Write the structure tokens for this entry.
Amino acid sequence: MAKVNKPRIVKDYDKLPLDVQGQIKINYPQGFSGNLITYINAKGKVVSALPYETEDHYYLVRMTFEEANNIIENDDDFGDDGILRDDFALQEFEGHDDVDEDVNDIPDETDDEQDEEDL
């Protein structure tokens, strides 16, 4: 079987599309901190990230242990116990368009694009 190389995306959690954030919550219903990995980027810096893979992409979502815990603590989709609520519905995220953005108004994410090469 031939190995397929998926595009690798390295981004901060809050910069991910909402539907991807929702999918990550479903994939990690007990929180993120216990699933973090570390790697050394191209600049020789140790980075921690949450791995997440879809059919089309391989994500490394940059976050520290503390950030992972803070995301869960401040997210209403997770209960006080840090577990994803039973009534969480991914469809709330799909096609989510609260803000009408003009494509020309979206800034280039040059830092993230550069970091993608860190893998």
About this structure: The chain has a mean pLDDT of 80.
